[in-house]
Write a structure and sequence with these properties.
heterodimer; A: about 110 residues; alpha/beta; Immunoglobulin-like; five-stranded mixed beta sheet; 1 helix; globular; B: about 350 residues; mainly alpha; Cytochrome Bc1 Complex, Chain D, domain 2; two-stranded antiparallel sheet; two-stranded antiparallel ribbon; about 30% helix
Amino acid sequence: MNTVYRSAAFLAAFTLACSAAQSAEVVVSQKGKAFSTAKLTIHSGDKVTFRNDDSFVHNVFSLTEPGSFDLGTYPQGQAKSVTFTKPGMYDIECAIHPEMKLQIVVTP
Amino acid sequence: MRYSFHLTSLAALFLAGCALFQGTRPSPVTPTGAATDAMLRPLAVPAPPDNIPNEARVELGRALFFDPRLSGSAMISCATCHNPALAWADGQPTAVGDGAKRLSRKTPTVLNTAYQPLQMWDGRKTSLEDQALGPIGSPVEMNMPLEKMTAHLRAIPGYAPMFEHAYPGEGVGPATVAKAIASYERTIVSTESPFDHWRNGDPQAVGDDVKRGFALFNSKARCAMCHQGWNFTDNGFHNIGLRALPGEAEDDGRFAHRKIKVLKGAFKTPTLRDVALTAPYMHNGQYRTLEEVVEHYDRGGDDKSNLSPNIQPLGLTAQEKADLVAFMRSLTGAPMVVVVPRLPAS
C-alpha cells in the first residue's frame, strides 16, 4: 500500500514539474469596454489570447519597455495572441478605448 | 479613485448661483445619485479628490471662464469660443484664435466634458484641470503666457479674495486657475431633453420617428458602436473616413500622441447631447447639418485609408435617415439660464 501512495505522490510531483516547464495560455476577454482582469501574472513563454466579446472592434497594444506590440483591430468573436518571452511589467491598453487597461507581469 | 459631488446639492447652495437650469424635471435617481436608467445622465458629477467643487470654486471659475483678460489680446475668454448661447461651442467650422486667425479644428462643446476621462479632439489632456490652461497658454489660441496671466490676475484686486476663499493658502497661479475653471465646467451638464422624458416613462414625449430612429441608432445604422450610453460617446477614438478639405493640412488626430496605427486620423467620439445645437460637425466642421452627417455614415465614409471597421455602408432609406435625425434632435435639452458674472475691476 505504501508503495502505491509513494508512486502516486511521485506521479503528481512529476506532472506539476512538467506543467511548470511548459508554457500556458491565458484567455483575456474584452467585454463591456473592459478587460476581464486588471492584472495578470504569467511566466515567460506563456501565451495570452485577447478575445473580443463586444459587438464593436477592439485593439490591444503595449508600448512598454520589455516588448512593444500592436495587434491591430479585430471584431466580435475574433481573438489575437501574444507570447510573452521577456520578463517584466507590461502595460496593455486598447488604443480605441483608452479606459481599457491591463497590467501583465511576466516572471522568469 | 474618483470622488463626486451632487449637482442638485450644490445648486441648492446657490440662491443666485452660477448656472441655473430651468424647465427641467429631476431624473429618477438612486440614493447614491446614480440614474436608474443607463440612458439618463447620472446626477453625480465626477471630480478629483483635490478639487471637489464648492460655491466659491465655481464662482471663481465662472469669473475666469468669462474673463477676456486671460488672453494676450484681452479680447478672448474661454466663453468666446465656448459660448453658452451656442451650446458651449462657437458655431464655426473651425475655431478662431488670437489675431482672428482660423485654427484647424472645430471648437468642441464643453457640455458634459466633466464625464469624459480625456479632453480635446485628440485626447491629449487627461483632465479638465489639465485642459483648462492649454488654450490660455497656446500662442495661436488665447496667447497668454501663464507667468503673465498670473501677474495680470494678481494685479486685479478683486481676484485675490476670491482665490483665497476658493483655495485657501494655494495662492493665485496656474494651478488654482485651472482648478477653478474645471470646477465651473463641472456645472455645465446636459439638461433633460424630450428623449429623457420618454426614457422617464412619458410615451408622448417624442414621436414615433424618434422611437424608430433610436432603434435604428442601436442596430442598422451602427451609431451605438461608438456613440454609447447616456452621453452617446464611448470616450474612444475612431477614424471615420472623413475626406480632407481643400487646403487642409493632414491631421493625424490621436496618432500624434499614441503611435498606434488604428489611431492615425482618429478623433474622439463627441457627445450627441444637444447635438442639434452644435453644428457644424466633425473635428474639421465639414458638415453643416445632421442630414449631411447621416449621409456620410450611410456612404460608409469617404477616405478608406485607415477607416474604422465600425464604419460600413448602411443602405438606409430616406425614411430611416429622417428618423435618425429626428432622434438626434430629441437629445436637445431644456434651455439653460447662465448667469454672466460681474468681473472684478482692473
